[in-house]
Amino acid sequence: KNEVEQSPQNLTAQEGEFITINCSYSVGISALHWLQQHPGGGIVSLFMLSSGKKKHGRLIATINIQEKHSSLHITASHPRDSAVYICAATLNTGTASKLTFGTGTRLQVTL
Amino acid sequence: DSGVTQTPKHLITATGQRVTLRCSPRSGDLSVYWYQQSLDQGLQFLIQYYNGEERAKGNILERFSAQQFPDLHSELNLSSLELGDSALYFCASSVVALGEQFFGPGTRLTVL
Predict the structure, then answer these.
(1) Looking at residue A41, what is its pLDDT?
(2) Are the beta carbons of B64 and B83 closer than 8 angstroms?
(3) Best mutation site among B29, B32, B43, B93 for testing chain A: the one with the most A CBs within 10 Å?
(4) Is the bond preceding B105 in cis, omega lying within 30 degrees of 0?
(5) Predicted confidence (pLDDT) per residue in A4-53, tens digit
(6) What's chain B's average pLDDT?
(7) Which among A31, A95, A101 has the least Cβ separation from residue B43?
(8) Which chain A residue has its CA at the smallest distance from B105's CA?
(9) Given this model, what pLDDT does residue A93 score?
(10) DSSP labels, A51-67
(11) Which residues have a Cβ under 8 Å from the Cβ of B98 and sit 6 or more positions away?
(12) Is the dihedral of CA B2, A52, A100, B46 positive or negative?
């Protein structure tokens, strides 16, 4: 079983829809990251959070430490949001900072 | 643009060969990470350096090695290459060892 699980694996939405991607983890973490990978392959860090909620534009990330669960929300989705969204956890390993990745959610937003 | 640079962008080589991938972190970032992304394994952490010293090791094969130089750039050396080593190799950097990571554009390695 992966230490970081994401759902759904694939998601298709129409422009304007509210989107939620879920991430759960089974080990102690020091932080949870949400990454975006575009078809060209480049990876962009969207959020790094260890508690509560963060918002950037139309993107919102939340984390519930007790439930070991995080969500990424996209409001008013747009075709340019089409990408793979990856959840990654920084495991509690003292001073090391290795990321363990979920398998990603492929999002397609259509007109 | 994350500020992290990687060279080369693409690399095509043959089995058994050795290659070196290079990464320059963002200005001021002390920590460098290497990741491998293959079609069947997804993203995997390989190794982390902090200010020249190895800090954490992941699923890095013995045929692979890395180092971080005094100017903080890093190199990932892959030797005795196999077909299965074909992948995207990403470098990322952060200011501190537990900080937010910024990813480079990646090097696409194809082993024929």
Answers:
(1) 79
(2) no
(3) B43
(4) no
(5) 999 999 999 999 999 999 999 988 888 999 999 988 778 999 999 999 99
(6) 94
(7) A101
(8) A42
(9) 64
(10) SEEEEETTEEEEEETTT
(11) A30, A31, A90, A95, A97
(12) positive
- Nearest chain B CA: its distance from A9 CA (Å): 13
Which strand ranges, in their side-by-side order, compose the sheet holding B19-24?
B5-7, B19-24, B74-78, B64-68
- CA-nearest of B43, B86, B92, B84 to B66 is B92
Nearest CA in chain A to B47: A98
In this complex, the residue of A30, A48, A99 whose CB is nearest that of residue B45 is: A99
Q: What percent of chain B clears pLDDT 90, i.e. is strictly above it?
A: 83
- Please tell me if residue A100 touches chain B, with a CB cutoff of 8 Å: yes
Q: Which residues of B touch A3 (CB under 8 A)?
A: none
Digit-coded pLDDT (tens) for A40-98: 778 999 999 999 999 999 999 999 999 999 999 999 999 999 999 999 998 776 655 67
Contact status, residue A25 vs residue A4, Cβ threshold 8 Å = yes
Q: Which residues in chain A touch residue B2, judged by CB atoms under 8 angstroms apart?
A: 44-45
The DSSP annotation for A21-34 comes to EEEEESS-EEEEEE
Q: Nearest chain A residue to B1 by CA: give it.
A: A44
